[in-house]
Structures
1.
Amino acid sequence: MQPLAIEVKDVWFSYDRQLVLREVNLHIRQGEFLAILGPNGGGKTTLLKLMLGILKPTGGIVRILGQDPSHMTGRIGYVPQDTSVNKDFPISVMDVTLMGRLGHMGLSRRYSDEDRAQARQALERVDMWEYRGRPIGKLSGGQRQRVFIARALAANPLIIFMDEPTASVDKEFQTDLYEFLKELNVSSTVVVVSHDLSVLSSYVKSIACLNQTLYYHNSAEITPEMVDMAYHCPVELIAHGLPHRVLRKHEDH
Amino acid sequence: MACLIGSCASTRTIEMLEALQFEFMQNALLAGVLTSVACGIIGTLVVVNRIVFISGGVAHAAYGGVGLAFFLGISPLMGATGFSLLISAIMAIVTLKNKQRADTVVGVLWAVGMAMGIILIDLSPGYNVDLMSYLFGSILAVPRSDLVMMFAVDLIVLLVVTRYYNSFLAMSFDEEFAQAAGVPVRALYFTLLAMTAFVVVMVIRVVGLILVIALLSIPPYIAERYSESLRSMMVFSVILSLLFTLLGLWFSYLFNLTSGATIIMVAAAFFFISLVVDRVRARLSRSSPSPV
């Protein structure tokens, strides 16, 4: 049997004495396209960092493809929030992309021709190869996002994690982005984290809502109950301008 | 005393060239070169990792090590190095554990280190320490033994940074991505702070502990805008640091000024010139339609 892509079992997490995650359970098969939604401060980024092995849970177990996240560094692709990046940093698009190969090599090794070839392939896939010599700070938000996707792809990841992918890109690129993620989803598991409910689209296969605890539905549908529980207030959700409604109609009005 | 400044300066320049025959002057120049190498490389990492304040804290706390050395009767250089390493390790632990409160703790260690140094020197009998030489440097009084140590620090810094360059680059650019990719960020961070401690003690010799931050941060700050990679930023910083140190040394000899302070004033002058140049460049590129 194939191991689960992501297994989060009874996970608790607290910073100092402040509880961030309570009894979180999540089982994601390979090939899933999951969106984790929730309000800011609800613990989304913490859960993401636990799955990436950046943080260790206070209690409970996190397994990626059946193993401890810190052993899976070569098989995980991570696309951080654009805002977390220092735009004055003197680094070229190519050098950023090459970082994706770090998980495949030792601490001190140089990049090999193979690493360069993989980075090139990844940049070509996101149409950014011609910008390879550009400083990262001289790109637009959307272009930078593509480079970070290329960096994640350079690792040939089995799972791709994205933190707030639509935060700093325009509406037009958002559609392209989801189209692209759908394409990636053919060969890898995709996990998107966002506070923005509009990421819900026809591309996502399943949705979880997180606000300290996790509400998970194995379908691309948010129930009003999930939203109530996650946001602690009834939200009228209407999917404006999206190709498919993601919500059931409220019948009892 | 009715000589023109120009002709005085030129006579002094000739005197300075003569002064190069003296060992103290040769040592000063060599110290300037050796310090610039380590300072440019580590200064670059300090600036891009935003630990300028921490390195300032280590520099000032180092005075505690000087005091301790006099109190115990060991070499001040040893005392300062050992103590700086200890303080930098504590600061590394604190900043890794609690980023929000780290600056407060660094500030406290900064002051406590200095206070401890002053009191320990008060308590050391028979010593009349030249406090000024630690506060503002004494590049004109660098003994051969210090040069050997500086050379060793350069060698360590060069070896470590070239060997782990890609890992340092990843940590500096995007710490979380680096961590997720399996780069041992914690170990690298401790290594960086330890190297910073070594370099800080070395730079104290040249410009003194009060001015260490300036020589560590001004060259990389200027270099960053003109560099396309971390590597070129390091090289450019080394060159700038060398330029500031040698020019400062020359001016201090020419006008009979304190060398450490003169070096920093030269660096500061370049710093402000670069700000003005940037402003002008930005305005020019805004007024002319950009081709992209």
Note: The first helix of chain B runs from residue 5 to 19.
2.
Amino acid sequence: MIIDKKHVKWAVGTGAAVVIAISSYAVYAFLLSTNGPRGGSAFGLIFGSAATGIFVFECLLGLRKKYPASPFGRAQTWLRAHIWLGLLSFPLALMHSGFRWGHGLAAVLMWLLFVIVVSGLLGVALQNYLPRRMKELVRKETVFAQIPLVILGLRLEADERVEFVTADLKIEEGHPEYERAGGVKVYFDPKQKQDNAAKLRAVVEKRKQSSQIEIAPDAVKALQSHYLQEIRPYLTDRPPVSSTKLFRTPELIAAYFGHLGKIMPAPAHVILDDLEDICEERRQLSVQSRLHGWLHGWLLIHVPLSFALLLLTAVHAALSLRY
Amino acid sequence: MAKEVILEAILEGERVSAEELLAIPGFAAIPKERLEKFPGAIVRRNFDAGSIIVRQREHGTTCFYLLSGTAEIYVEGVSAHGTPRKQSESNRDWFKYFERLTNHMIGAPLPGDSSSLRSQPEVSTIAKRIGEIGPGEIVGELEALNVLKEQKRPRPKFYPRAATVRAQTAVVVLEMLPNYLNTVLYSSPAFKDTLNRKYKRRAIEYAIRSAPVFRDLSEELFDYLCSRAELVDFEPGQVICQRGDEVEFFDLVRVGFVKLAQAFPGGELVLAYLSGNSYFGEMGLMPVLRVRTQSEEPERMVECLVSTIPIGVGRTRVSPDDLAIPFDEFISRGNHAELSAVGNRSKEGNQLKVVLKSGKNPIRFNEQLVDKALVSPGESFVLGQTTFEVEADPLAGKHSATSTAMDFVQLVRIKAEDFARILEDLPQAASAIAEVAQGRRQIAAQLLARVHQVSLEDFLDQDLMQAQNLLLLDLDRCTRCDECVKACIATHPDHVPRLMRDGLRFQNYLVATSCRACMDPLCMTHCPVGAIRRKGSSLDIVIEDWCIGCCNCAQDCPYGAINVTDLGSTLDPFKPGSEGVARKPKAVVCDLCREYPEPNCVRACPHDAAIRIQPNFFFARELAGVPLMVTPQPPPQSEVRAVSSNTKMIPIADELLTAIPRLEVVVGLNDKDPLPSPHSPYFLLRNPGSTSFGREIDNDCVLQNDTVSKNHAIIECHGSRYVLRNLSESNITYVNDQPASELELHPGDLIEMGLVKLKFRLGPRQ
């Protein structure tokens, strides 16, 4: 979530709450407590209960997201509250413990809370920076879950483009829903659209039988070998390291295809341009995957630990109050 | 296709030889070689008593010749005349309380919510029996003959069955392909003559029976109408009637799609696409009058259109459509009086009926105090201390829009005098038609008002300007968490998202793939059952329950905003209350969460990235440099009320078209930016509403000149009057070289604000 002026009230409120809490704690710790501040004292329990209440609220965010039309506030409000109350919970927990880290379960809880808060701060920082970077770096962004499908489409498109020069590449990749013909994308189930499937098969057969763009046989072989050995492996879900290094940046891609353009005759250049675009799009999808991982990866630490914290807090409360 | 030879057809049923056919009386006159021409194109089929031969709204082009038995004809669906499904029972069940509480907590619409699209009483599926056929008769010929007409065009279209035919007794039929009907049977002049006559009569009967407004027609009136109605065909692109033409018929669309549009400088505004069972021409056939208050003060200038639907007049409104006169203390608070238009469709024949209701002060008319009055156009009456003038609607008796056939159109034309008789005999139908007419007027006014609130030259070329509602995702904020899509999935019971987080980019925004509520809704052009439409005065596109999943709308939508999914269920019209007999595809489209306070995709975005905007405001303000103003979408209901409850109603379409108000820059703003925009020398004025002028960036029209005050002046629109009001204490506004603090503007007036000179224009662009 972008930290903007809408957070000012929350920041001021949280700051004020911290100041009030610390002031209360100071009065309690230095004036009222005879044996030093303890978690089991009235003040300690108040701080502890407040922190626990915040933990519960924080964990309810997932439930709130599940019911988008819920009348209990908008999702943005909940997330703002999640951020600022989460920050507030840490000093409250410290004041509950008397600024002692403790040992045993108490120490575990403090470490858990620390990691959760830090991971949350990291998440907020990433959310403030990465979306803009993704917008700038990934012009051909797609829906993350669709990336494998898009890569498949790029690969089939590249095969088709190269076959205009080389004729049949002898690659069998049965994806009936992505049959392509003559550069025109056609998506259908051949069983349902039999006439269209027959027409498409005729076009594909014609393309595979002989090259549609005539160039010297040596150039055909060169293109074929470059494509099969270097370019096509890159157009997969997990390209080999060599391909990834070869097409790591737009400049490298441009240099690679610039070199190919020098050794290939002019009629093939239109195919090379298409392949360059395809490789660039594949590269951007890699960038998108990486950035997406950063944008959401921190949740793999933050969320499970939060529920663990909630559970262990309940255990801690039960044990402390009983014993 | 009729000229091609079909070597062999495959129809379900038992093949019939030419010799067997010749033994049938109806085929006896047909030469044998013709009967042998299309083997397999005609087959014999048996149906048990009670079984369905053809079902309404299914696709099919074959026709059926009854050899033996009798069959019944039913019309169902939108035209159903049955009772609506009963709502849920009483709330005394404690479980219902718990269900309502949890529904409230998760924000779901309440069970049996009357605003739910799926509980509209019109979508009853009980079928009405309209006739019976016996041996020697043909059914299904309407669709077959339609196919034959369609095949003259490159892309034929196929219309669904117009009625359901069910075997009353055990029935034996001959099912045949349309070309068999055309080539073989039509070769017999007698057969052809009989078929054409029956086709025409049946087409008219089905059309009238299927029209919801005629559901209470008596048999006598029905027969009368059928005997006098005409069946008229129109070719694609043919203009059926022009705006301003005299209305001679009430047109019922039987087949095809009709576009209703109005022209304005810069293009054409499509008001509606009408498909089967729709009608038009009613606005010109219903009496309507304009009533306005007589006053010099802008705050007391009120006017409205009055139709046959009575509206109340009072200091406050009892219902949203009432006319409020808050400034006259001599008018009672509630319904002081009631106004309604009466008479025939011509200008001269209409009169305003004024009836005193709860008012303490009587009506003053013709210098007499009365309880009721019939006021003719040009006359006036007084309520309290307010004088009301009555004027004729210039479009009375005329078409208010140009209607054009989008493809092969067949209209059932009912003469105006017959329509008048229907209105007299069926007050309920008259009321329903008047409501539709009023809704159409409101939609037209809203659409036209929106059109001229933007700089047309700048934005008409962009597809985005066709949109009236866009979902934008701020890519600087969006973390690609897909909460918007998940919210859409969670919102709809079918769990099919109506949006995709992919699409065009505009600056730092992603225009998500979702319904845009286009001004020209291409998706509505080819729906064979009229399931995709705009309802009432709402501009959002909705797809009703009776969608048959033909995919036409999904194919026609240029933005991929409509999906067809396999989730619909069909209710058997012969088993009312049944759960469903089959699952068939149904189109789904974003309905802006009509049942909720706001679209859930926006509500569910945790990062403030999703916004819904009206492109005309959004992009105009963005380009003008004014900070983005996010306009949250109000619920459709309040939007309707806002228009209908505003007594300062938008003037009728005719005046809007010929009187788009604007200020033309005569003397420039400054050297660097002399014009409001690079392409337009005009500032467009809001109608209704006010348009502010000044140096401050918050003004509607920013005049970047140091001699202009920060907030210099405002021009307010009151009906057809434009009043300029000076806002600056230190800087005078001049009109025609005279200082003006508050002045009504007239076309050609020269307005000076500082060194900037603007001319007030009220007419087509020069």
Note: The CA atoms of residues 261 and 322 of chain A lie 79 Å apart.
